[in-house]
Amino acid sequence: MTKTKKPVLISILELGGYPDFTRLYQSLGYEAHLLPSMRKATKFIKKNRVNTIIAEFNFQSDFRDRSSQVETLMACLAQTPDVDVIIFYDKDQQHQFDRLAERFHFKAALPYPIEEQDIKNVLQC
Length: 125
What we know:
alpha/beta, Rossmann fold, five-stranded parallel beta sheet, 34% helix
């Protein structure tokens, strides 16, 4: 008898402008991992097969060559284009996020405040 492996979802909660939805992810059948930094997330991605990533877009004007840590994430995923990436963002940063979205494909982008039902809808489609 073969054991079916659950899809792996990581949630990167750097600044935390939203609740921890780990229980929701698990209820939807994911093996969920909550990671506190992009550095830990990229390390995890390099060692594990990940199906879905949820990350925050936080515009950082002090970065010289990028606008946020999401660009670091997307560079890490360049060899694995089948990973679904869902981004949470602040409506005040819409313009900066739109520029990023022109360069990278995201499964979904959800503005704050994040509602559990919105995440559920995105993950179930």
